[in-house]
Amino acid sequence: MQEFIDKYLSKLLTAIAQHIGYVLVSVGAAVIIGFLLAALLSRGRKAAGFVMSLIGVFQSIPGIVFIGLLMLKFGMTPFTVILALSIYAVFPILKNTYQGFIDVDRNYIEVAEGCGMNPKQIFFRVEVPLALPAFFSGVRMSCIYTVSWAILAAMIGQGGLGEFIYRGIDANVKEYIVIGSIPIAILAVLFRFGIDWLEKKFVSKGLQSG
Amino acid sequence: MSWEMVLEHIYMVVVSCSLVILIGVPLGIFAYCRPQAGRIILTVVDLIQTIPVLAVMGLLMMMFGANSTTAVISIVLYLLLPIVRNTNTGLNSVSPILKETADAMGMNRLQRLVRVEFSLAFPFILTGIRIAFVTAVGVAVFGTFVGGGGLGSMLYRGIRIQNFELILKGTLTLMVMSVFFDYLLGFAEKKCGGAHEKVEK
Amino acid sequence: MIEYRNVKKSYGGKQIIKGVDLTVEKGEFVVLIGPSGCGKTTTLKMLNRLIEPSEGSIWINGADHREMDLVKLRTSIGYVIQQIGLFPNMTVEENIAVVPRIMKWEKKKTLDRVKELLNMVNMPYNEYGRKYPKQLSGGQQQRIGVLRALAVNPPVILMDEPFGALDPITREILQSEVKKIQRELKITILFVTHDMQEAMKMADRIVFMDQGRVLQQAPPKEMLLHPANETVARFIALQGIGSRTDRITAADLMQQASGLAAGEDSVTVEAEEEVKEICQKYDLSKYRRICVKDSQGLLIGEITVGSLLEHLTEWM
């Protein structure tokens, strides 16, 4: 096993970097798109119902299939991977953040109006801070899922830690699978703690439990 | 489409869900009875679900080899969260007034747990079970990578040989399966929820 | 200072406010009261345009309030609602500083003002400034709610059942504090409640509303003694004065005396007569004394109308 790791260390490091890159880029894109869409949809609630049910349908298509379909359309490129991962990463963020905006108590908005805040001030000083915990749980889910989905990149030959796993499966070599799986597990846990930390930092202490 | 794959898939789903109910519900009850240990249990279960199933399968394969057992155990670990958490939440949401009433009527701890707390928490547990089944249908797709077979093999092959029809068939079968479980258990939930509401009135 | 001129409000063809005329003087404490759904909260919220009137107009210092700048209007009117009014994501300091921030006060000025206000209610800045609402008791939260409304010294404050969620003792304390602040700073307050006791304690003038109309406007004692109609009387009775004085008779309140004589300034009642009945039967504003006679018709004592009123207010 040690021998195996020595032999593949540089390859493994590249794969880890690729994997992290995929996750960061797609979740990054999803954060921006998901947040903006949620903010927009929470203002036009009629459209929101339609969009949400559409997302429900979309989400029920397994990621593996979606990647497969995209690949047939766009070819086996990193762009295909990023596009597929970003689309899937948007769902939890959009859903949670939208709910977060919807759940802001009407009373707070009314008081803010009564204090003389304009819509922009109400949005940034009241609505966003109050929706932030929900937004972060969305980002957390998104990140964890994306670490998992990014494995599929290897399926179309675009690297990442999945490569070890697929090669292990194809060649029936267990060591490959193990040295791919361990960093994936660690990455997922690290991302999760990272988001927890960000949440603690950015969400008002007045909204955190305990 | 081979029926064998469908059956393999259903096998993985049903076996892992049955196991996770047998393990997760008692774990949730234990976590409720011993809140300190409970907090640790919930954290651990939450962390386990953080780890991608495919990675868990890869690791477990070292121990159990490439077969459906590995797949099933991995799925069970992954599904512990919804079952344990919902059981725990359900029990915790029972009103203290009802518990006190049960005490006042002379029930002992076990009677109270079974007749009052558990039966009131049951709709929550059912929701957890529904989530578990629907999730299992999706997660079992990865079973193919560790020799568990199932619809995953069809999808994987479809992508490998770029066969659109194969991918589509596999996907539709998966969707039908998850809608079926969702509907079936949702129905049970509704029946149960109705009874639950009547109790509360 | 504030004048509602035939203000009406309809929602989807249904008229909620059916023409309110109301004048509030500077420094006056006006309480809007009435059963739920009477339109008191709507009337209140139309002043800072959280709700726009459908018809009629509201004038503030001689200007139609619809022609005033919305932000200026609202920052010049403090607004306090039930407990939930504090922003949970902001500290005590940030909550109080909401309006100063909108008005772009300097940081130093804002901080000084926050400290000054907190001292006013005995919640020192060092101890409370950085706390979040969830770390405060209900009474403390509501104090901060009041301070936030006071922050930029607005001439007018609107309060919508601000003490509804508090326990009776805390409510009592906060009522006194607000009343004291209002007198000292000569603020005009419009206050909505459904609690007659609270209205009696706080108001210079009570405005009784029902089904979108003002039924009566009067100072507390006058409304107590001369309810304009059955609805007002019943509301007052249901709110406690009735039941609490049920058993109290003239004999209980009278000062025993001999050699009394009934006169122009007095009314004579039986010793066993209930105080409540006396109030309903006679127009007490016309008299100064109530003479009490026993079953033989002998005058055995008297009650001054002044002392009776004091008792009644106390019992509310």
Q: Which percent range describes the beta-strand content of chain A? A: under 5%
Mean pLDDT of chain C: 88
The run of helices and strands of chain C is EEEHEEHEHHHHHEHEHEEHHHEEHEEH
Q: Estimate the strand proportion of chain C.
A: 25-35%
CATH superfamily of the largest domain in chain C: P-loop containing nucleotide triphosphate hydrolases
Q: Which CATH architecture of the largest domain in chain C?
A: 3-Layer(aba) Sandwich
Helix content of chain C: 25-40%
Q: How many beta-strand runs of chain A? A: 0
- Outline the low-pLDDT stretches of chain C: none
Described by strand count, sense and barrel closure, the largest sheet of chain C is: 6 strands, mixed
Shape of chain C: globular
Key traits:
heterotrimer; B: 201 residues; mainly alpha; MetI-like fold; 8 helices; C: 316 residues; alpha/beta; Rossmann fold; CBS-domain; 2 domains; 6-stranded mixed beta sheet; 4-stranded antiparallel beta sheet; 14 helices; 25% strand; globular
Fold and architecture overview:
The complex is a heterotrimer of chains A (210), B (201) and C (316). Chain A contains eight helices and no strands. Chain A is elongated, with a radius of gyration of 20 Å. In chain A, α1 packs antiparallel against α6 and α7 (162-171) packs antiparallel against α8 (174-202). Chain A has 210 residues and is an all-alpha fold. Chain A has helices at residues 2-41, 45-59, 63-74, 78-102, 106-114, 119-149, 162-171, 174-202. Chain B has 201 residues and is mainly alpha-helical. Chain B has one domain (3-200): MetI-like (MetI-like fold, Orthogonal Bundle). The model of chain B is unreliable at 195-201 (pLDDT under 50). Chain C has 316 residues and is α/β, with parallel strands linked by helices. Chain C has two domains: 2-238, P-loop containing nucleotide triphosphate hydrolases (Rossmann fold); 250-315, CBS-domain (Roll). Helix content of chain C is 39%, strand content 25%. Chain C has helices spanning 40-47, 70-75, 92-96, 98-102, 107-120, 125-128, 138-150, 168-185, 196-202, 220-225, 230-244, 250-253, 275-281, 305-315; strands at 2-11, 14-24, 29-33, 55-60, 63-64, 77-80, 156-160, 188-193, 205-210, 213-218, 255-256, 266-270, 289-293, 299-304. Chain C has a six-stranded mixed sheet with strand order 6-7-8-3-9-10, sandwiched between helices. A four-stranded antiparallel sheet of chain C has the order 2-1-4-5, covered by helices on one side. A four-stranded mixed sheet of chain C has the order 11-14-13-12. In chain C, β4 (55-60) and β5 (63-64) form a beta hairpin. In chain C, α7 (138-150) packs parallel to α8. The radius of gyration of chain C is 23 Å and the shape is globular. The chains are: A mainly alpha (210), B mainly alpha (201), C alpha/beta (316). Chains in contact: A-B, A-C.
